[in-house]
Amino acid sequence: MSASRRSASCSTSTRWRERISTPRVEDTEHRLQTDQNTFIMHGVVDLLVNTPGAGGDPGDCEIWDYKGTSRVSMTPNDLLSYQFQMQVYARLYELKHDVLPKKVVIYLLSELDGPTCPTKRPVNAVLEFDASNGLSKAAIDIAMAEFVDTVGEIEIARAHDQWDPSPPDCISEQDCAICDFRWDCSTPQRWEGREAEVSVGGTETTEMTE
Q1: Residue 78 pLDDT grade (very low, low, confident, very high; cuts 50, 70, 90)
Q2: CB 3.0-4.6 Å disulfide test: which of 38, 60, 144, 169 passes with 54?
């Protein structure tokens, strides 16, 4: 990483900490895991944050996950992917604590980039999901069923040692850039991925059905 990039990353991290009320943080790198008989699901939540004015009970906690991206660079498929991840995290949280989190929050750190530190949190820096917009038990059940189906597809591919390439334009350039197999990839777009050309607007809370 270049010196300028390290400096920018440190600046963004400092600005993010300034926007968070530390006493609200209940836990960091909160580990979640469940045995599904044929496979084990696990994940690490960046932050557990207490809802303002709440007593710290598991049902009053919020899951916070931060992403090093901005709203304008995200496509609808990226948002759906993030929502799917949060739905899975919510179920893992429920299995551990016997209750769903109050809500889940995705914090887009690149929205804090700029020549000066914002005096308040930018509206576009946060995506929130609760029972009214993607975090209902029914929505979570659908996400979990999709996850189980995907595991089954992976096991079939592994048994036959056949890994079909992804359809064109379904993989982001960012994902391609960090993939260990990008140098020997048979996807139609080779390893270049597709550029994020679709701008996504919206409010802090976005209904997307990540």
Answers
A1: confident
A2: 60
Asked if pLDDT for residue 192 goes beyond 70, the answer is no
Residue 163 lies in a domain: yes
User: What's the CA gap between 6 and 2, in Å, rounded?
Assistant: 6
| DSSP-derived 3-state class of residue 182 | helix
Is the alpha carbon torsion for 114, 119, 124, 128 positive or negative? positive
Query: What is the total count of domains within the chain?
Result: 1
Structural domain harbouring 57: 10-184
Query: Does some domain include residue 5?
Result: no
- Note if the pTM is more than 0.90: no
Residue 195 covered by a domain = no
Q: By CB neighbour count within 10 A (0-12 exposed, 13-18 middle, 19+ buried), where does 163 fall?
A: exposed
Residue 90: pLDDT band by 50, 70, 90 thresholds?
very high
Give strand ranges (E) for 36-102. Answer: 40-50, 61-67
| Burial status of residue 133 (CB atoms within 10 A of its CB: 0-12, 13-18, 19 or more) | middle
Domain harbouring 167, CATH code:
3.90.320
d(CA 102, CA 141): 17
| 80 belongs to a structural domain | yes
Q: 106 is written with which tokens?
A: 């995705």
